[in-house]
Write a structure and sequence with these properties.
Number of helices: 39
Strand content: under 5%
Helix content: 55-70%
CATH architecture of one domain: 3-Layer(aba) Sandwich
CATH superfamily of one domain: P-loop containing nucleotide triphosphate hydrolases
CATH topology of one domain: Rossmann fold
Largest sheet: 5 strands, parallel
Distance between the termini: 51 Å
Length: about 750
């Protein structure tokens, strides 16, 4: 006997969500109230209906859908539920009593769809029914939780979106839920629509820009009958005007994207509306401190910010996720943010942008004082998370507050150096230095920053000009700290050009200036450079003793990053002394420190250093692999080490190649080129003897399966049958494997799989 129900027949296909449905089916066995939350258009109703259809056999007494969208009066809630369940009102009895009597003892599932505008009434009803009807299970859909004891809150995720690096491979892109939905819906209005190489890239961009939101994707897909896909991509910058083609029979709030968001916005209290609009000023997310800096002010008091932010999270208009820094990270979906930005008044927007810029200028200034410090890692990660906001502050302040712009750009230099963002940093610093600003101190700091970046990109003449101009301004203004930094750059440049006498003179002046402001960390770091000058003159033992003392000072002063740099210097000096064991002992802790800070530039140098250690101990293939890996690490971010070090590496490479056959050397180089940073570190720090520690596969789990089947001798059609995929999908996977591994034939893939995946 079939389960009685009033579930509507589904006119269009249900796409994706298999993993989520499996999880919800499991949770329904444990919880009697699950609320599917999410923003408008997230697909909560469709998901709830599909879930209900999947579990019909668990509820022999009925599965009942209660549609609440058209109910504006909470007093009609009980009657609406009773009518959906087929429960008649008894004369002289309150409707609630009749509803409870009709559901008591029945193993049934009740779906309350669209509770957000009746959330208090729905919470009261759900609580009472759960207490008095012990076999009843409830699933509700709402843009905010009901707040009932025992409620399991399940946030409806967006559909999976494609990786844009696979966008030219239609079969791979089609594995994304969002793309699958777009294609299914596009074919309803344009039956001949095909996802191929000419359309897949645009479809991938559309689905990614719309963040996998089902309603927005369906509306965009409906435009495929009247617009070319590149036109849709281009016009998504004004998505609310574009996405207006919903079904006439759908609920009004699901007919256009704007109506969907209007509905949510209209349910907010005035203070909640004010806060939502102000939060739209952030790009890429924010934490509570940033929100307080921008939101505070009439009508929001300080103690109200967290409460209002919490309510916006509960109402699915703001997302909240742990940041990994001990704080929560908040974000508005792009669709919600664009809607809120439209609510800005011109004067309000200017004031908000200033508050936003001031906050991030202060944050970056504070961060610059923490580089170096024991908290350096924390501050780097914090700046990582706020890059979009910092760029927004740079964009705004360059026009509105030039002095602040110069200060902000200069304060970001240390971060840009560590993250290898040389092109971006030069773009900002060039603009800062070209500005007519009243702050000569800011200009001097920007010149210093650009000189340091120019050293990394081998623009030595430009670096020297910037350092000299910074030095002139700083001496005139009495900016002793900047004087010491500029002198140090000039010392580095002299050393690079082989003028050790001039380098030593600049470093001695650097120390003298740093002593005036008691900058002990900078004094110690400069002593590192002086020691390398000594080593360059051949006095390696004196340099080693000096560097050992500097490491201890920096560790005591709370500069672990600087200590790691000095251990790199100790490794280089030990190599010159042919003490390979000592060199390894210095390089290993140095690489651990650089790994902690994700500093790929230093890691590349250290990997090469361990390669030279391997060469000295008789392992030329290891030297070649590690030099190749370091070359790849630098290629990702750009920048170059100094000439003396590169000369040592090139000489080591030549010696290693001379010890091997041409084929063996090329194999080692190719192996090293396949390493990512983690794999390079693992190989560099592993045991010198034994089988090569191969890098982890760059392939996805599905691509590994395909490669393994190729190694078994299967054809593409046989692979498609084995893995239950379309033939074109199997073809696309094979092509993608070739591209990722740089291989030309199936036989090469088979060999790779045998060696790397352990296939028989």
């Amino acid at each position: 006997m079939s389960t009685p129900n009033n579930l509507p027949a589904q006119i269009s296909s249900f796409v994706g969500r298999e993993r989520q449905l499996g999880e919800l089916r499991r949770l329904l066995r444990k919880s009697r109230l699950i609320t599917l939350t999410g923003p408008g258009g997230a697909g909560k109703t469709r998901l709830a209906l599909r879930l209900a259809a999947d579990v019909l056999d668990r509820y022999p007494d009925g599965v009942w859908l209660v549609e609440l969208a058209a109910i504006g009066d909470p007093r009609l809630l009980e009657q609406t539920v009773a009518s959906a369940c087929g429960i008649a009102e008894k004369p002289g009895h309150p409707m609630m009593n009749s509803l409870v009597e009709g559901l008591t003892g029945r193993r049934a599932l009740l779906i309350l769809d669209g509770c957000e505008h009746l959330v208090d009434a729905c919470a009261w009803l759900a609580s009472l029914l759960l207490r008095r009807c012990s076999k009843l299970t409830l699933v509700s859909t709402s843009r905010e939780p009901l707040g009932v004891a025992g409620e399991l809150i399940w946030r409806t995720p967006s559909l999976s979106v494609p990786s844009l690096d696979e966008a030219r491979h239609p079969e791979l892109v089609m594995e994304s839920e969002a793309v699958h939905l777009f294609v299914e819906r596009a074919r309803l209005s344009r039956p001949d629509f095909e996802l191929d190489r000419t359309t897949s890239e645009s479809v991938a961009q559309i689905c990614t820009r719309l963040e996998g939101m089902p309603l927005a994707i369906e509306l965009a897909a409906s435009l495929a009958r009247i617009m070319a896909l590149p036109e849709i991509v281009d016009r998504l910058r004004d998505r609310f005007r574009l996405l207006t083609g919903g079904s006439r029979t759908a609920l009004p709030r699901h007919q256009t994207l704007r109506q969907a968001v209007d509905w949510s916005y209209g349910l907010l209290s005035p203070p909640e509306q004010v806060v939502l609009v102000k939060l739209a000023i952030f790009a890429g997310g924010f934490d509570l401190a940033a929100a307080e800096a921008v939101v505070l002010g009439d009508p929001v008091e300080g103690s109200d910010v967290l409460a209002l932010l919490t309510r916006l999270v509960d109402k699915s208009l703001v997302t909240a996720e742990p940041s990994g820094l001990g704080t929560m990270r908040y974000r508005l979906l792009d669709t919600i943010r664009e809607y809120a930005l439209e609510k800005f008044q011109q004067n309000d927007e200017a004031a908000l942008r200033r508050l936003h810029a001031v906050y991030f200028i202060d944050l970056c200034s504070q961060a610059s004082t923490k580089l170096p410090s024991l908290a350096m890692g924390h501050w780097i990660l914090r700046l990582d998370s706020d890059q979009a906001n910092i760029r927004l502050a740079l964009d705004w302040s360059i026009a509105e507050q030039p002095d602040d712009f110069v200060r902000l750009a200069a304060s970001m230099t240390a971060y840009w150096l560590m993250r290898g963002r040389f092109a971006e940093s030069l773009e900002w610093l060039n603009q800062a230095i070209e500005l007519s600003t009243s702050s000569l101190e800011g200009r001097a700091a920007a010149l210093l920053g650009r000189s340091r970046i120019r050293v990394r990109v081998v623009d030595y003449a430009g670096a020297r000009r910037d350092a000299n101009e910074c030095l002139r301004i700083s001496r005139r203004l009495g900016l002793t700290m900047l004087v010491s930094r500029a002198l140090n750059v000039l010392g580095v440049l002299s050393g690079i050009q082989g003028n050790l006498k001039a380098a030593e003179r600049y470093y001695i002046e650097t120390v003298a200036a740093a002593e005036q402001v008691d900058d002990r960390i900078w004094i110690a770091r400069t002593r590192n450079n002086l020691a390398l000058v000594r080593s360059g003159r051949g006095d390696h033992e004196a340099a080693r003793i000096e560097l050992e003392e500097v490491v201890a000072i920096l560790a005591a002063e709370g500069d672990p990053y600087g200590a790691g740099v000095v251990m790199d210097s100790l490794g280089q000096v030990s190599l010159k002394m042919k003490n390979f064991t000592a060199a390894r002992d210095y390089y290993l802790p140095a690489i651990a420190i650089s790994r902690e800070f994700d500093d790929s530039m230093n890691i590349a140098n250290l990997v090469e250093g361990l390669g030279l250690v391997a060469l000295g101990e008789g392992d030329p293939a290891r030297m070649i692999r590690l030099a190749s890996a370091a070359n790849g690490l630098r290629a990702v971010r750009g920048g170059f080490p100094d000439g003396d070090w590169m000369k040592s590496v090139e000489e080591g490479l030549a010696a290693a190649r001379a010890m091997l056959s041409r084929q063996a050397a090329e194999t080692a180089w190719r192996q090293g080129a396949a390493f990512d940073m983690q794999e390079a570190i693992t190989h560099a720090t592993g045991a010198a003897a034994g089988r090569v520690s191969e890098p982890a596969s760059p392939l996805t789990s599905r691509e590994k399966q395909v490669a393994a089947l190729i190694a078994e001798g299967m054809t593409n059609p046989e692979i498609a049958t084995r893995l239950k995929m379309a033939g074109r999908t199997a073809d696309a996977h094979v092509e993608h494997i070739r591209n990722k591994l740089g291989l030309r034939s199936r036989s090469q893939i088979a060999v790779w799989a045998h060696e790397r995946l352990g296939t028989a």
